[in-house]
Amino acid sequence: MTEPSWHTSTYSGNNDDCVEVADNLPGVVRVRDTKDRALGELTATPDAWTAFTGFARTHTV
User: Quick one: average pLDDT of 40-54?
Assistant: First the structure.
């Protein structure tokens, strides 16, 4: 089984106030909190993740 390859956004800077994403596994995108990985992971389909990140890019607060 392939292990997830976690990465953070380049917008995160050098602090731990961000999320990590693993999108190297077929059919699933995994997301977790960098500061508290013990909280577990959120999973989404690649299509749902693409829709979410597209929405987030265009709807900033």
Answer: 95
CA-nearest of 57, 11, 20, 58 to 42 is 20
Flag whether the pTM goes above 0.85. no
| CA 15 to each of CA 12, 18, 45, 48, 54: distance values in angstroms, whole numbers, following the listed order | 7, 8, 28, 27, 24
Print the SS3 string covering 7-61: EECHHHCCCCCCEEEEEEECCEEEEEECCCHHHCCEEECHHHHHHHHHHHHHCCC
Which band of pLDDT confidence, cut at 50, 70 and 90, is reported for residue 4? very high
